[in-house]
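Reviewer 2 asked us to include a model.

Predict the structure of this chain.
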Amino acid sequence: MVSSTNKIIVEVPHRISGFFEIVDKENGIPIDNPQKIGSRGAGFNVSGVGKTAISYQKLERDEESRCTIYINEDKLDKKAETTYFIFDYIKNLIKYPIKVKIEHTFDLPVGCGYGASGSGALGTIFGLNKLLNLGLTNFESGRIAHIAEVVNKTGLGTVCGQLGRGLCVLKEPGYPCNYERLQSPNDILVLCGTFGTIQTKSILSDEKLSSKIKEAGKLALDKLLLEPHYENFIKISFQFVEDTNIMEILDLNKTKELLNDLFKSDIIGASMNQLGRSVYAFCKKGKENESNEIFNTYKPDIKTFNLTINNQKTINFKEK
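Predicted model (structure tokens):
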């Protein structure tokens, strides 16, 4: 084994999706090309980030490339399907065998509607590209991340939303990304509470719920484009939750109860993360105490986070 080791760390923001319309068919016919599958909708990057640390060693010529993958210190390897898909893709782009270690650590809970899979996918491909000098353009790296999410059913539009930065609307599905950014004031806090996970794959594979999401998502997008404003975004996002009956279908009673309580406080609006047993609320800085007290009444069943909308660049390298 060759002993040289190199390492890079990539930080990518978490993202909360407010509503989405699944686009996996064209004229009723399933779309085969994963690049063209995706979603329309809207959401926003937040101040919490996912960190992807990648290190590698060159192997002897007769060895096979291999990869170990950790998520929040749990060793998952091939079970981390989206990340492994990207490794499997890029190993064909290099001329020598390598041993790669990929470690994802996330500020916010995985599987709870904070775009961890998109953050990890972008961190993986941009990190591997820079570390291994693969020569991929930013456009191509984004494409690979999007396809990895779609193929493994861990996301549809998260990658494009994260690349869009801030609060943005995904106007068309698939890749290349077609988004429009909305202005959001600097004095907005995003208060979040999480009861647990929802497997995105299970939702995207459920025909009945998928059909409701398509119908409600299209209606929500049309309404937001008529009045593209952050206050309208969160109002429409909650209407989407009601129109899909997602809380009733998934028996999210505590999520529903928390939202009802929050609407009695001094907030701009609140809704459910897509997709997770999580709730977020927009409120003005200085007016968060009452809402935080409401979140705290659900402890110890809930984990809470005080965040902001992140308008900064998406891909942030930290070399070691």
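The chain has a mean pLDDT of 94. Residues 187-307 form a domain with the Alpha-Beta Plaits fold (CATH 3.30.70.890). We have added this to the supplementary material.
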